[in-house]
Design goal:
It is built from 4 helices and 3 strands; from the N terminus they run αββαβαα. By secondary structure, the chain is α+β, with helices and mostly antiparallel strands. It has one domain. The chain has a 3-stranded mixed β-sheet. The chain starts with 7 loop residues before the first helix and ends with a helix.
Length: 88
Amino acid sequence: MAKDGTSTYGLLGKHPTTGGFVSPAVIDSMYNILVGHGRITAAREEGYKTVPCVFAESLTDAKKRAYILADNQLIRKNPLRRSMARLP
């Protein structure tokens, strides 16, 4: 659940069982989530035991931080972000 008590699925705009996994989570060799926290949270809420993931094993710590920051900036700058969060 989101901090306001709403389902994570609504925040993502897609439910994992109806096509929400069009983009896998990205994790490192220690299974730290680099990208896809919301997708994994939604999957856990739905009872999934596994989710699609891509291993980013060759990234240095500095490159991991840069990747995470770049991904977050893409999300923040997406003009559809607010309208997608309101979809049923």
